[in-house]
Amino acid sequence: MSRPDFNLLVTLDVLLVEGNVTRAAQRLRLSPSAMSRALARLRETTGDPLLVRAGRGLVPTPRALELRERVSQLVQDGEAVLRPAEKLNLKQIVRTFTLRTSEGFVENFGPDFIARVGEEAPGVRLRFVQKPNKESAPLRDGAVDLETGVVEKTTAPELRVQALFRDRYIGVVRKGHPLSKGKITPSRYAAGRHICVSREDLDKGPIDEALRPFELERTIVTIVGGFSTALGLARASDLIASVPERHTGNLRAGMHSFPLPVSMPEFTVSLLWHPRLDADQAHRWLRGHVQKICGMIR
């Protein structure tokens, strides 16, 4: 039995990422015809068409989707084996890392994170950008190094994911607010004046769905784009903010927090990055610090 041509793994990896023969050829500095021949060899080797035409483009087959993450990891592992090993000198690193997070994450975790990174690697600069949507493109194209958030069906399947912590929504009001005393019932909670947090300017969400069986509805007074903004408003008024508990721990200092009086599922906040950065030593070091900082939250 003839041995497979392992060079085809690199070709397959690029084809599955680009989904386009011409672009894949450009990345590998091949002619389109040479890339077409390589795709034909891959189809023969795997016994699957891998990429099939749909309109003017190509779409991956189920087999291609199954292989995509495995092939990417194999290529990265191969590159790591052949790359000269160098010990990471944190004091000499001069690099900017871009992290995309929801509002409130930086305010809550940022001070300790920045201090730890600065102590070990003074040449590293952290750039935090807001997360206006859940698109995976910034991680794919390298505009973002790390992202935090909840993994959903729309999350790109090739991304690496590391769970950081479990969280749940709670209610938060200023000290002395009527809801800071007595039992919080669904009717008492719903009867208040509420802040809705939504990046998409929606005035309804999972909490409103959970109130529906009680035939209750919140009065939404204002809609804001982030949790820290909601807490700032609640701190200075009689408005009620409903925010993730662990995500906003430091931001709620001096305020009264209470469990929501309706059943809401917990969710996992994760760290996401593109697999091409798996073997990057500095990136690994940075990921480790995010995990340590978030792991301190219980």
Helix amount, in percent? 25-40%
Q: Give the CATH class of the largest domain.
A: Alpha Beta
Low-pLDDT runs of 5+ residues are: none
Instruction: Describe the strand arrangement of the main beta sheet, using strand numbers.
Output: 4-3-5-12-6
In percent, how much strand structure appears in the residues?
A: 15-25%
C-alpha termini separation:
55 Å
Q: What is the global morphology? A: elongated
The whole-angstrom Rg is 24 Å
Describe the structure.
This protein has 298 residues and is of the alpha/beta class. The chain has 3 domains: 7-82, Arc Repressor Mutant, subunit A, CATH 1.10.10; 90-164 and 271-295, D-Maltodextrin-Binding Protein, domain 2; 169-265, D-Maltodextrin-Binding Protein, domain 2. The chain is built from 10 helices and 12 strands. The protein has helices at residues 7-18, 21-27, 32-46, 62-82, 105-120, 137-140, 186-191, 206-211, 227-235, 281-295; strands at 51-54, 57-60, 95-101, 124-130, 146-149, 160-167, 169-173, 193-197, 219-224, 240-244, 256-259, 267-273. A 5-stranded mixed beta sheet has the order 4-3-5-12-6, covered by helices on one side. A 5-stranded mixed beta sheet has the order 9-8-10-7-11, with helices on one face. Strands 1-2 form a two-stranded antiparallel ribbon. Helix 1 packs across helix 2 (21-27), helix 1 (7-18) crosses helix 3 and helix 2 (21-27) crosses helix 3. The protein starts with 6 loop residues before the first helix and ends with a helix. The mean pLDDT is 90.
